[in-house]
Each structure stands twice: as structure tokens, then as C-alpha cells.
Write a structure and sequence with these properties.
alpha+beta; 5 strands; 12 helices; Alpha-Beta Plaits; elongated; 5-stranded mixed sheet
């Protein structure tokens, strides 16, 4: 699911404290090595860490301010920087061990153990990425122990893989729990915004989408206008009263499917309750809205077979309005479309009325 993937990636890069902690650890270690040795590599480590820290923090800020398309590119850069940091950190640990100084050797071991724990915690949503960063960190450290490490450090070589394997298991378990939590949250979000009877989005979804369309008018790359159709089913109550609620519920579901099949994929239909529906038509002018409304009425006037023992017939009255100016109030738009619906119902059955012209079919 794309939504789950996006949430997993975002959750990794929301944890900025770990980036700061890693930078502090590297800086302290490099300064300590520079004080205790005459080598030049600690200064190179400091420079590399400073560059990576600035680049990673800028990348994290860029993700917050980017569109979904731009965010994908930012994530790719952050993945690369994360693996690069792990490699630089591992090479720094190699340098610490290669000095042979007992303090620096112990410092390297503590650093790598802490880094593996932090990597497992931060990257649980993306375990494959976490495993790559762990490998980039641990391989130089293990190599340094084999080549330069004191004989007393054999226990680190023995316990290191066990520690890393344990952290990988924990990371995978946390990943599973995180995925289940996100899926449950998304499902709860969907249920809260879906009408159970017709499986159409409900009033909450309508309010969110309508606010989104209103705020987009006049912005770069957005549609210039959109239409709102308010719809009531004609003669639904007599059918519901005569055949019962079970048939009425089936009829509402069948009507919802016909409405959905009468509009484009970019359009959206909503059930407000009872026999009331709303349709949003992005990028639609007044004439096109009239055409869509007429098509919906035609679809709903065809007989329905909903298990009543005979075909049942209903119709639809539709009122519409078009939003084509910025800073429009969503509720005011709904009110205008609703007033046009009242005019359509007053004119008879299967009637369409527009709020601006009063015309329709």
C-alpha cells in the first residue's frame, strides 16, 4: 500500500534527535582521538561528520516543505546520506582501534554498540535500510578488531554478531508492529470517513475534499473551477415504506453504484444520510455540470431489481453550483447547491437546477 510505505519512510526521518546524537558521538570521538594521537584522520572525520550533519538536517527540513513528488527525491538523498554516515562512522571506529590505545579501542566498541542499538530503533519502519546502515557501521569495526585489535578483544568478535543479530530481530519485530499500527490507523481513518451502507465517502470526507478544492482555486497547477451537485432521490420513501428497510438499504446501495458509474474517476460521490448525496466535479464548468447531472438522473430513473419481487422505480432531483473564484467558503457553496436542489424539487421530479442560471433539465 503506497500510504503505508509513505508513512513508514516519513516515520524514520521524523526522528531527528538520533541524527544529532550520532553527530555528537562522532565529534566527541574524533576530538578525543585528535588529542591522544598525532594522526590527521580524526580531523578528516570531523570534517566529514560536519558536512554529513548539515546535509542530513537540510534534507530533513526539505522533506517537511516538499510536495509528494519532491519528497521521493529527498528520501532517496537521505537514504544515501544515512548509509554514507554509517560508513564514515565505521571507518572512524576502525581508526580508533588501529591506534592501539586502550581508551580509544573501548570507545570504538561502545560507539558501535550504541550506534547499532540506535539504528535498530530509528530504522525499524525500514529494516532493510537499517540493516545496510548496520553493515556499513559494523564491517569496518570488525575488520579493525581482526587486523589491529588487542587479543583481549576476542570477546567483542564473539559477542558482536550476537548483539547485531539480536538488534536485527528486535528491528524486525518493531517493523511488524509499526506496520500493523499504521494499517489499523488508516483503516480506522477510512471507516470514519465511509458510509457503511453504500461504501461511499461520508460527510466528513466531503468537508475535507471540499475544503481542499476551495483552497486550490487560483493556485499554480490547479483546476480553475469545480462543480457541486446536491442530489435527492425521488420516490425513495414510498419504496422504503412499502417494501421495508432491507429493500430500501439495497436500493440506496444500487443507487450509489449508479451515481459512481456516471462520473469520472477524478470525480467523487458522497452520501450525507437518508437519500441525500453530493457529487464533486473538479475542473468542471457549468455546462459540463449540467451534462453530468442529466446523466445521473437518466441512470437513476432506470428500474432497479433489489429483491422486492418486482422492479422498483425512483428518480432524482439535482441542484448544482460552480466554484470558479478564490477564497470561496465551502459551506456557502453547499448552501447554494442545496438551494438549487430545493428549486429542482419544487419544479417536479427528475429535475436539474443550477444555482446561478436557474436552468437545467
Amino acid at each position: 500500500m503506497p500510504e503505508v510505505r509513505e508513512r513508514l519512510i516519513r516515520s524514520v526521518f521524523e526522528r531527528r534527535a538520533v541524527v544529532v546524537f550520532g553527530a555528537v558521538t562522532s565529534t566527541v570521538s574524533a576530538i578525543t582521538a585528535a588529542i591522544l594521537t598525532d594522526a590527521s584522520w580524526p580531523y578528516l572525520w570531523l570534517i566529514a561528520e560536519a558536512i554529513l550533519f548539515v546535509a542530513r538536517m537540510r534534507g530533513l527540513v526539505a522533506v517537511d516543505n516538499s510536495s509528494p513528488q519532491q519528497a521521493e527525491r529527498c528520501y532517496a538523498i537521505l537514504f544515501f546520506l544515512g548509509i554514507t554516515w554509517g560508513t564514515v562512522f565505521g571507518l572512524g571506529s576502525y581508526g580508533l582501534i588501529s591506534t592501539g590505545d586502550p581508551l580509544l579501542v573501548v570507545l570504538a566498541a561502545i560507539n558501535v554498540a550504541g550506534a547499532v542499538g540506535n539504528i535498530a530503533s530509528r530504522n525499524a519502519p525500514l529494516p532493510r535500510f537499517g540493516a545496510l546502515v548496520m553493515a556499513a557501521t559494523c564491517i569496518p569495526f570488525a575488520t579493525a578488531l581482526l587486523v589491529h585489535g588487542p587479543s583481549e578483544m576476542w570477546i567483542a568478535l564473539l559477542m558482536g554478531p550476537v548483539w547485531v543479530a539480536g538488534m536485527v530481530i528486535v528491528m524486525l519485530q518493531n517493523h511488524d508492529m509499526t506496520v500493523r499500527m499504521i494499517v489499523a490507523e488508516l483503516e480506522n481513518h477510512r471507516i470514519a470517513r465511509t458510509d457503511r451502507l453504500t461504501d461511499l465517502p461520508n460527510r466528513i470526507s466531503l468537508e475535507e475534499r471540499l475544503a481542499e478544492l476551495c483552497s486550490a482555486i487560483g493556485t499554480s497547477g490547479s483546476e480553475d473551477s469545480f462543480a457541486i451537485l446536491c442530489l435527492d432521490l425521488d420516490d425513495f420513501k414510498p419504496v422504503n415504506d412499502e417494501y421495508g428497510h432491507a429493500v430500501g438499504d439495497k436500493l440506496l446501495g444500487a443507487a450509489a453504484r449508479r451515481i459512481r458509474n456516471s462520473i469520472r474517476e477524478v470525480d467523487s460521490a458522497y452520501r450525507l444520510g437518508g437519500d441525500e448525496f453530493v457529487v464533486l466535479l473538479p475542473g468542471t464548468a457549468r455546462a459540463e455540470a449540467v451534462f453530468v447531472g442529466s446523466r445521473i438522473i437518466t441512470a437513476l430513473t432506470r428500474p432497479f431489481d433489489v429483491g422486492a419481487g418486482e422492479l422498483v422505480r425512483i428518480g432524482a432531483s439535482i441542484g448544482s453550483t460552480v466554484a470558479d473564484a478564490p477564497n470561496v467558503d465551502p459551506q456557502a457553496l453547499l448552501d447554494r447547491a442545496d438551494q438549487a436542489l430545493y428549486a429542482a424539487k419544487a419544479a417536479g421530479k427528475n429535475v436539474y437546477r443550477d444555482s446561478h442560471t436557474g436552468a437545467g433539465g
